[in-house]
Design brief:
The chain has 2 domains: 88 residues, no CATH class; 91 residues, Winged helix-like DNA-binding domain superfamily/Winged helix DNA-binding domain (Arc Repressor Mutant, subunit A), CATH 1.10.10.10. The chain has 9 helices and 5 strands, in the order H-H-H-H-H-H-E-H-E-E-H-E-E-H. A hairpin with a 3-residue loop joins strand 2 and strand 3. The longest helix has 42 residues. 16% of the residues are buried.
Length: 210
Amino acid sequence: MDQQALIENPEALLALVQQSVRHLIDHRPDTSEQEAQLRAVVKAIEQLEKQQVPVPDALRQTKMNLVAEIGQQDRFALQLKMLSDGLADVQKMIAGTFGQPTTREKSGQSVNPRSRVSRPPRTSNSELKQYVLQSLTELGGRAHCSNVLNQMQKLLEGRLLPGDLEPHKSCGLYWRYYAHWAYQLLIHEGIACRTSQRGYWELNHDVIEQ
């Protein structure tokens, strides 16, 4: 069924969305074994580096392969989050069109008066991804996420859109929240990698050396 047919047939569109969600859930990757292996490999590399012993290329490649496999879980979470946010926006659009209360309003929860209108424009994740990459590169390829975000703020000065500057309950501003998702995209693409130290972001060695 083509795009126009789906637009004209909401039931088919809804069925397609439900099928997509079921597919994602059914194929959710279990990366617990790979995460345990990665911790062991990272520890081995750190010990060799402390002893000033050259790290074998095969060991570094194993680390990169494990990072890529574990990145499947990040991709799964990102896909579901995008679906959840997108469907929430659609629900608000529909409720606003018919003047109906949203699910939150029906449950008695407080609702921001602006929630019935579409969100203001924001910087796309693909653009934020490039700023994350540039900031990490300028910081030497590895830094705490707070330092990366501060560096991004300097690069984004005067470029942030209204949606970027909306307050976010856990990250301060929405652009900082989406920057975390942009970093997960870099991990999925093999440009960045997971670190054993919580809160730190890091580029793969191959990217730093280029």
